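Q: Predict the assembly, please.
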Amino acid sequence: MRESDLHFFIDSTLNYFEEVTREKAQTGIPYLKSVDPVVLDYTGIIGISGKRKGSIYITASHKMLEYLAQIILKQSYVSNTDIKDLIGEIANTISGNVRQAYGSDFMISVPVVVEGHAKDITMPDDFQAFVIPITWKSYQSFLVVCLE
Amino acid sequence: MGQPTKLMIVDDSSIIRKLIQNYLNEYNIEIVGEAGDGKSAVELFKQLRPDIVTMDIVMPEMDGLSVIDEIRKIDSSIKIMVVTALSDKSTGIEAIKRGAKSYVIKPFTPDKLKHAFSKLLQ
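A: Predicted assembly structure:
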């Protein structure tokens, strides 16, 4: 994985928050994922195939997703289904938008959503996984990118 | 005000389906149906015969490009607006080649969606 790969994902993530909420998010310094789990309340996972192989996931707290869904839908009550759907849609949008850089051979799967604190999300063993911390308002979430 | 335009929304995300509905509610439209996967979209299209379809591309069961092919076999004049996260040029060109009339990249603002939808109504 190259440094430019991380930049594509960072740009895509920042663009998502700015377009959807009109408020910028910040990303922290990416780091190599260790054995320590990086999992919050909800996780949206996308498998990557084609020219590049691997997977990405974004994980966020219930509170952050609830607030984000309230802003997006302009309603005070959002259901658990909306929250689960939202994390999948964020993962889909971030990974779909990087095709501007990678082209159509960068194939993305439909999102898989994991609810609750899993022990960890397993990434392909053969490739390095990088964690990109994301801060939006006072909430922290993480994007994990693992590409060959 | 004339007959409302019959709209069908196809997207595997319920949030996106709600958002499209919210953003387009100022138009004289009737949401006749929603589908969350490609196969259901084709079946629903046969029953409902909408005037306009918004179409996601990455979906379970059948992708949006294949759905476009199937529903254009049923109605070649159907107006299709693709709404997708896939931002590469070649997918956009492919969708237009297959008969989509406009292409909106997620994430979208209300203005971006309305602009594309207004062009479709002309």
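Residues 3-147 of chain A form a domain with the Chemotaxis protein chec fold (CATH 3.40.1550.10). Chain A has one domain: 3-147.
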